[in-house]
Every structure is written in C-alpha cells, then in structure tokens.
Amino acid sequence: MTINVDLSVKPEVKGFFDPATNTISYVVKDPGSTACAIVDSVMDIDYAAGRITYDHADEIIAYVRSSGLSLEWLIETHVHADHLSAAPYIQRQLGGKIGIGRNITVVQDTFGKVFNEGTEFQRDGSQFDRLFDDGDTYQVGTMTCVAMHTPGHTPACMTHVMGDAAFVGDTLFMPDGGSARADFPGGDAGQLYDSIQKVLSLPEEMRLFMCHDYGPNGREIRWETTVGEEKAHNIHVGHGKTREEFVAMRTARDKTLAMPKLIIPSLQVNMRGGDLPPPDEDGKRFLKVPINGI
Questions:
Q1: Are 78 and 108 in contact (CB under 8 A)?
Q2: pLDDT tens digits for 97-107?
Q3: Which of 16, 180, 195, 208 is positioned for an S-S bond with 150, CB 3.0–4.6 A?
Q4: For the chain, which ranges sit under pLDDT 50?
C-alpha cells in the first residue's frame, strides 16, 4: 500500500515525557486551524498502593486549554503493556474521539481469556469510537491523517501519519535504541521487521516520533528522529540488515527481557479503551493478577 504524504503540511508537535514509564505523549496541532490530536496519553498509577491519579493527563489538558486548541482525536497507537491510557479521562474534559487499530479485537480476545473476563466484557472494540483499518484516513482540522497497520509488537499496532510527522508507537525506537520486543501474545518478530520496513518506506525527511525512550548509554531522553536517520543508523534494522538477521536478533534478545512492571494493570485497562474494570456491587474496582498466565 502506498501512503500519500504531503510533506508541506507541518503540524506543531508538543511532547510530554512521563519518567515513571518512559512514555512520550503528544499533542499534534493542525497547522491550518486550532484543531489537535493527542497521541498515547498516560494515566498515573501507584501499583503497590492501588492508587490512580491524573497528573500527567492534567498537564496535557492544561496545555490544550491554554493554547486555545480544540481536541478532535485521542489516538492509541496500540494496547500498551507498560502504561495505562488516560484517553477516557481526557475525553471527559476536552471531548474528541478515541481511535485504535481494528485488531484490538484480537487483543481483547487473547487477554480477555488471560484475565478470565466474563461475557460482559465486549471483545468487539466497542469501547473505542473508531477502529482503524490499514490505509484509513481521518481529519484533524484541515489536516488529513493516515493510519498504517504496523503489527509485530502487538497485532493492533498502527503508525499514524499526520502531515510530515509519523507516530510509530512501539514499532521503532530511536536509532540507538533499536526496536521493541515481539514476544507478547500475538507478537511476531518477522511481522515487526516487515512493519518497520513499511515505516522506512516513507520519505526520508519524514519526522518520526517515538512512544518510548530510555536514554541508552546515559544520553538525554529524545523522541524525534527521521526516516533517513533510522535507515542509516538504527542498531537493529539499519545498514540494510536482513529479515533473517533481525528475527534471530529479536528472538534471542526477547528471551532475556523481563515483563514490563505495569503489564498486569495496563492490559486490563487499555483493552477497555482506558477505562477501569467495572465496579462490584459495593462500587469498588479491582484488577486481577493471573498466576502463570502471561
């Protein structure tokens, strides 16, 4: 599939770094209006205490309001396993539609079983306002945006192209960070390589924005690069590395990685579009811990 890209459209991108999860959320402003989108918001959790707060989301809300922006979309690049989405909380404050890739239904079916969810848990993606297929377009003000299906990290991963900016989720990291793992249920290293090549087929000057950065080798946190820089310098896929080389590297590396600290609460919340599990008859909400389930 060929993506029609208009590099003359240059959205203003404001990043918000969450040090607790090394996640970057973005406010993306249409250059032709006051419309904006928010990509990959974060809800704060003190997992040990079972306490939810919204400091990170409130910072983004304050920025949108103080900048006089109108929120049209809350984009989730995928079902995150390392942080909880604040999309519904922000939506209640600012409006907008919540969108994710159509294969959220695959993720919901997989983890609905892992967390022993009952039949009341809908596995049809109905918790979201829009399910994107590969190549779907949508508007942020005057700016036409394109959703690209880029699976491999998860089945539902999407890269969102907005003018000369693309938001890659966990498909890629900064050049010295490489790529994300592919060993979660539904992940596939070969698919991830193919998806990365799809991203790298975009124009070389296309700006790429990461969902995470961990400051390899002690460097400062960064989250913006370009297609050209990734093709030339990415330690996992740059320099013309083959699919076979990548799959062997990714498979071996993933075997050494521990599970993300917040995977248990993150999946339960994010597969619901950012909502907490429903309350019991006393109005209390609980998260489950599957034993040897992931």
A1: no
A2: 999 999 999 99
A3: 195
A4: none
